[in-house]
Design a protein that fits this description.
single chain; 316 residues; alpha+beta; five-stranded antiparallel beta sheet; 7 helices; 12 strands
Length: 316
């Protein structure tokens, strides 16, 4: 075997290894010489696109009809940057491509940009990888986050998260308005001391420190929120330790409910009970006085009168 044949065999073997490695990583390679209609796709990319080598489209030639319309402008902008002399050295875009069967597949497209001495792009070569599962997972995460944010914004409670310094990192709209702010952004980064008097925010901070230290919640605590420039308010609060996925304490989170009307009703009931007790005591005193008068009258002796065989007597 000649040296040339040996080199060709070694190159073929190396290419085979590369192809196997790319297939194992779920990646395919592509190579496009600028100005040519044809493009090289590896077998893996042809599997992604569900087509043969002869029918595979060159997705880099306008109008990019195989690219999903929602990502088409993004794809075109990334390609224009790669073709620009002052553009980046890497083409990078995620998009959906229409396959030969008419379905859509999510691909991550990466390519190294080669330019000549005048800065003109002459060739772009890179890889594609199927990211459908990742996109599905991202979509599920986004949906879960949307559901959670919908719940947080519509539940009739004040909801918040605080860091280890008891500063707000997330609040819902109801919590922002409860603190006299038009939107949650005005509350982020602030502390209870920015909204409440010392007696209240100091106690709240101590509770949160205890929750983080003991990693145990405080639930159903009735709090009187004292403000320097407003009427005091009452809330029923529960606070919990905020842990990351590894169990590390990140801060606290909690919920508060407005119980002003309940507390005011209880206070009014207590005042009414006290008034009734006072009146009842007054009635008891009057009844006792009447009893004493009756007893006094009942024990009084009256004179009797006799005349011509008749007797007149008095009693009570």
């Amino acid at each position: 075997m000649s040296d040339a044949d040996g080199n060709e065999a070694a190159a073929a073997e190396e290419a085979g290894r590369m192809e196997l490695a790319l297939k194992a990583s779920n990646e395919g390679i592509w190579d496009w010489c600028i100005g040519e209609d044809t493009i090289y796709y590896s077998r893996r990319i042809l599997e992604f696109l569900e087509c043969g080598e002869s029918s595979a489209p060159n997705l880099f030639i306008p109008p990019h009809e195989v690219v999903h319309e929602e990502e088409r402008e993004l794809f075109a902008r990334a390609l224009r940057g790669a073709l620009d002399a002052a553009g980046p050295e890497l083409l990078s875009v995620d998009c959906r491509l229409r396959t030969g069967s008419g379905n859509w597949c999510w691909l991550r497209i990466r390519g190294s940009v080669l330019r000549d001495d005048q800065g003109r792009t002459t060739r772009i070569a890179g890889s594609m990888i199927d990211i459908a599962r990742r996109k599905a997972a991202e979509a599920q995460v986004e949906e879960d986050q949307h559901m959670l944010s919908t719940l947080i914004e519509h539940v009739p409670l004040q909801i918040y998260f605080k860091d280890t310094d008891s500063r707000f990192v997330l609040v819902n709209q109801r919590m922002a308005e409860w603190n006299g702010q038009p939107n949650p952004e005005e509350v982020i980064g602030k502390h209870d001391q920015d909204f409440f008097a010392y007696d209240h925010w100091k106690e709240a901070a101590e509770d949160e420190l205890k929750v983080m230290k003991e990693v145990k919640p405080i639930t159903g605590k009735l709090e009187r929120e004292v403000r320097d420039d407003a009427v005091d308010t009452w809330v029923l609060t529960s606070k919990f330790p905020w842990l990351d996925r590894k169990g590390k304490v990140c801060g606290t989170f909690g919920v508060s409910s407005d119980v002003n009307e309940l507390v005011q009703a209880q206070q009014q009931a207590a005042e009414l009970a006290a008034e009734l007790a006072r009146r009842n005591q007054s009635y008891e005193e009057e009844v006792q006085l009447a009893r004493e008068i009756q007893h006094s009258l009942a024990s009084t002796r009256f004179p009797s009168i006799e005349d011509d065989g008749h007797e007149l007597s008095f009693g009570s």
